[in-house]
């Protein structure tokens, strides 16, 4: 069972990672954001900043993966919800707060191995969620995985574009394009199955 204080640290860390990336957030800011004494941070995370970042990124991946998997059969609604969530989050934060996985992946993911590995694991959790839905809808596992990877990559790319352009237009445009791609891919799978002997 995770303590309330530890959970508060992870949630605050995810917010700071989404805003500043790995190298841009410090433990003093984290202590303030979590509303906990500085010493409490090291009590729960003796490994310091790196351990906290890994826990926050992994937690975000688990949360996103669970959210995606909890909508079996509704790949369109699930994908649209993901894009809409980020559009609202960026707008509410004046285009400052991005993805707690994608932002540290760009800032710190390549030179801190544990952070990079956590980002990989979190992206995999998202991809696995979409792969499961698409497989249930009739796509072959390899095709489902490829399409799921495309959706996650499109989401992250659209998030970066929206953030730097300070506009939700890239997220809405890419969301609509992903819906068309998903619809086409599923229609092709149904057509192939209908013509199979």
TrEMBL record:
Native organism: Nocardia tengchongensis
Keywords: DNA-binding, Transcription, Transcription regulation
Domain called HTH tetR-type: residue spans: 3-63
InterPro entries for this protein: Homeodomain-like_sf, HTH_TetR, Tet_transcr_reg_TetR-rel_C_sf, YxaF_TetR_C
One protein family per Pfam: TetR_N
Record's protein name: TetR/AcrR family transcriptional regulator
Annotated DNA-binding residue span(s): 26-45
